[in-house]
Amino acid sequence: MDTSSAPFHGTRMMVRFLGLVVLGAVIGGVAALLAAGFVIAVLALNEWLLISPRSRMMFDHGTLLALATVAVPTIGGLAAGLLHRGIPERRPHGPADVIAAVQTRRGRLPARAGSLSALSALVSLGSGASVGQYGPLVHLGATLGSQVARRLHFGRSEDNITIACGVAAAIATAFNAPLAGIVFAHEVVLRHYALRAFAPIAAAAIVGHVIAIVALDRGALFHVTNTVLPRPWEFALFVVIGGLGALVAGAYTRAILGVARQAARLPVLPWLRPALAGALLGLVALWVPDILGMGQETLRFATIDGAYGTRELLLVLLLKLAATALCIGMGFGGGVFSPALVIGTLFGALCGQVVGAVVGTPMDTFVFYAVCGMVAVTAPVIGAPLTSLLIVFELTGSYTLTTAALASVTLASPIAAQLFGRSLFDIQLRERGLDLSAGRSQALLQEARAHAHLSRDCVILASRMALGEAIHVLTRARHGEAHLQDARGGYRGSVTLAALEATREREGNQASVETIDLEVRPVVRPTTSILEAMDLLRDFTGEAIPAVDANGHLVGVVYEASIARAYLQQSDELRQEEHGHG
Amino acid sequence: MAERGWRRAGWLLMGLVALVTPPVAGDDGNGNVDALTVLSWGGAYERAQREALFRPFTATTGIPVAVARYDGGLTALRQAVADDEVPWDVIDMTRSEAMAACEEGLLEPLSPSLPAPAPDGTPPETDFLDDAFGRCAITHSIFATVVAYRRDAFPGQRPTAIGDLFDQQRFPGPRALQRTPAVNLEWALLSYGVPREELYRLLSTPRGLRLALARLASLEEVHWWEAGDTPPRLLAEGRVVMASGYNGRFFDAMVNREVPIEILWDGQVQEHETWVIPRGSPHPEAARRFIRFATDTERLAELARRIPYGPARHSAAVRVTTHPDNGRDMRLHIPTHPLNAQRAVTKDEVWYAETLTRLNEYFRDWLARRRAPQVPRKVLDSE
């Protein structure tokens, strides 16, 4: 290496790196403003549309209120359904799409789908659908980061970083929790830790936090004033709550995916499905209004001992779970996190009441049970135990509560991961054909197409050709093997020069190539991934795999060496991105 | 500077116009008014107003001020406006009632440019607190409903949080609370540890109301008061050990009558006290003149030196000093002082304007039900 250029090289890298940090802060600022605007708009819509309890209380016309309760979610669903028609996939995009973009290094989140998804989430949340707001905010921030990278013609690694910046800022603003934002971007989106990515993400989160303080002048999501300490044996209960919470989380994920599958079979136009869900939601809300919207009041009441009776807790928990599955499954725009917070807290409160009934003393540690249940359900759903803990810590400011939550998350995350999958997003991606369970490198190989390494530098022979001519063509091209094509261009099989020579000695020059016992190899189709091609290589010995086009015509080969090279290059890029620091 | 100069010239011009404007019947604008009738709250509050506002107003304008006694509510005003016989010119009204009255068309609209600018020329719009100007009302002071307790009632300990109001185990003894849902509901819900930012959202749900009333129901021996001078008296007579009440009244009892009580500032509920002119006031011009005079920086500071209510103007708040008679530092006794305001609740008057009637009914029903089963409850307790 030329040592004299090293300092210059170092300075240039430093400037580039600092530039990325500044860019991260800028993206963080814009993402935070968008997030703050989104949050304020949802609150305002909830006031105008008689969704928030405050507006419902202040509106003193019983019949009209009941009418609005059914009409508003229905019309909101209709609007969301119509908005989704503008998205190529006909569904709102969300965190799963962000994860896919980063994990497969395809980057590039489309602006149109991003803005339409944000808009539909705004309409859905504003009209009281039982969905969350953090998923849409994460996707909005990520789309912003991706678009900035695209405008600046960044490479894939930088693109991933700008996406993570947008995500971190959105979480930092919406929760007013910068640490949780940074960790969420790493834990859920990037899924690796590199100093190179950390600094811009931290900058984005801090800017988001500052903007949250200025723009969103509102109380913490769950401010808890509690100074009691749980008794030692209660920590064991928190662990158990974690294990049970994993099952609740599993039921929640299953319900959402199940409704989505059933909805696809409904004899209702896809864009009318959310309206149907909205009408159903509104009708049930006439009876139990707790299920409307994000449910912040329900969340608060669930932390108060005695606010709900045990049976009431169970009812609201089940209805909220069903309402969320209905709304998301039927195609409302919105996230899964806020409802999971409510369901988890109700579940924790239920555990607390059961324990209280068994112990028989007033529960001054009730809020601990509620928070443990909350973490036990949310962490597996979003696949982020650390983020959930930090959210508890930053929102309550209570170290004791955080340690209790830690006890609960210890069992919750691994059990749910074993039984159901790393997160709802991962399960959604697996259903769409992207399996992230074996890690990012596998996912990348799964996403990369073997056809990209197609080579036409090979010998393709018509299967009726005479042996002598075939050997002549092969030796002139200096190749060791040839691939045979039938009259319609399809692949027939492969032969080696050695086999041709041996047959010529037996049958003579004029015999047809077809007389040879052909070796039929698996073929690479346009959809075959590198990972699959590597699997194919296991089954035969030879230089290359024949490649066919979409019509089955033999068009060339993919050499074993290029597959190996692609694999090595992929790993090398990943290693640089994940372990590089400049 | 130039801008300020122009603004001052503008004010001067407006003042001249006001003087030259032809007088309305019964009010010739030159002070030849038989008397300006102010409806106010009596007691120590009225005494302070008399010294800080009414007497100086008469001295400056020659208009005598007659004071009528007011205990809140809109029933009398509604009747008077309907009969077209409004006996008052100016009313000292809480903002929530002013909002409701304005909505009903019982009040004259008031312009934000009515008050005088601050001595340094700062226009009223920036000198007054945020949302001090309503369509028909101008906030002059911030008062608080607080809990006061007898210093000698709980040897060895003192209430420190609003939740202690409901803790009759640690702080035994009868309580006095206002016979209204307002403030009581807030405190009851605060005692569950909910953050004050969420109070009104939670009170908007049947569950929140139920929780709050359950907390109130847990209190044994409550005297429900209506007039503002009752709670200090009940405390002074030792008939209750803790009482809710207006902070100014408690201050007066503490300082001027040496009642051994202390104020618990935690959870104080702050409200705006406003000046309004009823529709059909006999002397609307003199009334406007009075409001301009009474909301002037120096008058507001003078009032706050006599009764510890937070002035609605920033320029007045910094001029609050010691009580002219007893020399107490009044800044420590006003609800808006940073030390006292740490965990203050601002009453959501928009919410109350829409809900008060229903809440009152709900509360009355609850009180009636609570009183009825009191005997059976004791029977239950003994089981």
Automatic annotation (TrEMBL), chain A:
It comes from the Bacteria. The chain crosses the membrane at residues 20-44, 64-83, 161-185, 197-216, 236-259, 271-292, 313-334, 340-359, 366-393, 399-420. Keywords: CBS domain, Chloride, Chloride channel, Ion channel, Ion transport, Membrane, Transmembrane, Transmembrane helix, Transport. SUPFAM superfamilies: CBS-domain pair (SSF54631), Clc chloride channel (SSF81340). It is found in: Membrane. The keyword DNA-binding does not apply. The keyword Transmembrane helix applies. Residues 517-573 form the CBS domain. GO terms for molecular function: chloride channel activity. Pfam families: CBS (PF00571), Voltage_CLC (PF00654). GO terms for cellular component: chloride channel complex. Signal peptide: none annotated. Coiled coil: none annotated. It is a multi-pass membrane protein. This is CIC family chloride channel protein.
Automatic annotation (TrEMBL), chain B:
Keywords: Signal. InterPro entries: SBP. Residues 1-26 form the signal peptide. This is Putative spermidine/putrescine transport system substrate-binding protein. It comes from Halomonas cerina.
